[in-house]
Amino acid sequence: MSAYAHQMEREYSAQNLSSRENTGTEVGSHYESGFYMTSFAATIFIGALVAVGILLITLLIALTVMLQSCQSKSSGVVEVQKTSDDYNGCKAFALYAELNSLQADEFLSFCRIPAIQYIRAGQYARDLNSTMWLVQNYFSSITPQNDGLDVVLIDIDDILTSNPHQTILIMHRFDQFGCSDCVEEAKHLKHLLILRLYMKLQASGWPLILLTRKSAREQNATVEHLISTGFSGWVSLIMRSDDEVHMDSCDYFSRRRAVMQKDGFRITGVISSHFDALTGPYLGKHVFKLPNAIYYDFEHQIESTYRPKK
Question: Transmembrane stretches, by residue range (predicted)?
Fold first, then answer.
């Protein structure tokens, strides 16, 4: 082989070696670059997983809260529905009780709590004062004639002493609900306000006729009780005669009003807390229904006590 040929072979070998070294370097560079990119991607991937985890936990908490809220609202709806059923039943019974003059011991047991709350919360006192204001406002706007025939009828059984046995029974029933004095306090309040109204009407010149469901055989005791409690100077005290003792009270009052009108009296107003004295014929110009302490203010009770839980 010539010298030129040997020189070319050495240069070619040197170039191949250089080429291999360069190629190895490039491969190493590419390998190192690929490894770096993979680590960065892994970092991003792990961060994404953490973010998704946090999002899922937040979503789970939100769903739990929403579920509890829905359960609470559902519970409130069920409670309100049940209370509404009780309310409607007691409201119907209250009207029945007033129309038939039932006593407190005849109440349905689950309907006694609203009766107690009506007094204890002060709503009965407010209703009584408002009604008294209406009565006084009406009679202050008119004047009786001088012939003494414009009369006002007042039911006095709200202020007369109840049968002792019945009073004890009522106190025992209401004492079971922690309100042994509620009924007596309500009766005392009504007595004071009726007496105040009585004296104002009398001072304004209105002739007053008193009504009671008691028998005339109790007249002396009734008169004595009325005078001792501040009621005096009435025109007439109407009590049941012997043939009226077993008469329906509504018929009894209607019969007596008919006699008054026949005698020339003009009934200007009738005041009572009982429907039997405020229904029937010959009622005159105006009737005033006083609130009764032993019945119910259901609208107030449903608004203040029975609300859905938040």
Answer: 40-65
Whole-number Å distance between alpha carbons of 182 and 171: 9
d(Cα 107, Cα 292) in Å, to the nearest integer?
Answer: 14
Two tokens, residue 130: 């408002």
Q: Work out the angle at residue 154's Cα, subtended by the Cα atoms of residues 153 and 159, and round it to the nearest 5 degrees.
A: 165
Tell me the CATH architecture of domain 100-300.
Answer: 3-Layer(aba) Sandwich (3.40)
- Whole-structure pTM value: 0.66
Between CA 175 and CA 15 the distance in angstroms is: 117
170 CB burial (10 A radius; 0-12, 13-18, 19+): buried
pLDDT in tens, 163-199: 444 444 444 455 555 565 777 788 888 899 999 999 9
Q: How far apart, in whole angstroms, are the C-alpha atoms of residue 106 and residue 17?
A: 119
Reading the block at residue 78, the tokens are: 């069920």
Q: How far apart are the first and last CA of the chain?
A: 106
Q: Rounding to the nearest 10 degrees, give the CA dihedral for residues 79, 80, 85, 86.
A: 70
